[in-house]
Amino acid sequence: MEIEVEVIEFRVPAENNKTIFIWDIQTGFSEAFIYEALWSVYSAFGALYLLKVCPNAAVATPGFYAMVKFYSSAHASKAQRATDKQCLFQSSPVKVRLSTKQNPNLFFGGQSLSHARCQNLANHYLGFNGWSTRIVTLKDISKCADAGWSLHTASQGELLKYGCVAELTFPQYGVTCRGVGVAEDVVDPEKGLEEKLWKRGRLMKWAKDKAVVGAFEKVLLIVFGNGKIAVECRVNQEEVLPDDDIEGAIQVNNISWTDFEADGGEDEDLPWDFTVDLSH
C-alpha cells in the first residue's frame, strides 16, 4: 500500500498547487464577515499561510473574490475539491480553483516565515508541547564590528549590535538544531540614555527572534498520508555555532532597524495570481 508523503518547510509557501482562488462571492456581506467565514471553512482543511478578500473590479459583476494559501499542497487540493460549487456561507455556490501559475522564485527557495508564523505552524503540526526553544547565548557585539561606529545615518552615532544563538528542540523526535540572529541600529547621542536603552531592548528581542527563525528554517516536517509526522533537521557542516562565545563566529546578514520595521506586518503584500486550473 502506497502512503502519500509531503515535506513542509518553515518558509513562505510559493508553489502554485498550494494556492486556491474563490470567486462568485455575493454582495450583501462585509469583507470582514467574508474573511471570517472563509477562514472558518478553509482552516478546517489545514494550516493557512494567507487569506485575502477583495471586491471585484468596477467593470465586473458586483461581489468579491478571495485567495487562500496553504502550507500543504494536499490540503489545498482537498479543500478545492470539497468546496467547489458549494454554497459555503451564502445562498449560491462559489467557484474554487487551484492556481496554475509557475513561480520563478521556486528555483531560489521561498522567503523566511516570521517568528510568529513559525510558532503557529509548529503548534499546528506538533502541538504546543511538541517543541521548545532555548537561548544558547545573547551578546552585545557592537565593539566587534567597525570599532563600534557606523555612518548609516547623516550624523555619526553609536552602533548597537547584538548577536544571538538559539536552540530549537523537538523532544518526541530527538531532533535539535540551532540558528543565528544579528540585529543592529545606530543611536543618536543627542537623544539620550533612554533612547539607547529602548533600542537595546528591541535589538535584543529581534536578534533572538531572528535566531529562532534561523533554526526553524533548517527543519523539515515529513507529513504522511496516515497522519503521522516525522521531523528532520538540515545540518550545515561548515556552520560554526559555539556554546559560549559568538564573537567572530557569526557570519550572517545584519538585520537593521529598517528591516524590522518593514517586516512588522504579518500579512505580506503578495501579488495576486489569477491563473487557475479549470480542469477540476
From TrEMBL:
One of its GO terms (molecular function) is DNA binding. Keywords: Cytoplasm, DNA-binding, Nucleus, RNA-binding. CDD domains: RRM_RDM1. It comes from the Eukaryota. Residues 18-101 form the RRM domain. InterPro entries: DSRM_RDM1, Nucleotide-bd_a/b_plait_sf, RDM1, RDM1_RRM, RRM_dom. It is found in: Cytoplasm; Nucleus, Nucleolus. Coiled coil: none annotated. One of its GO terms (cellular component) is nucleolus. Homodimer. This is RAD52 motif-containing protein 1.
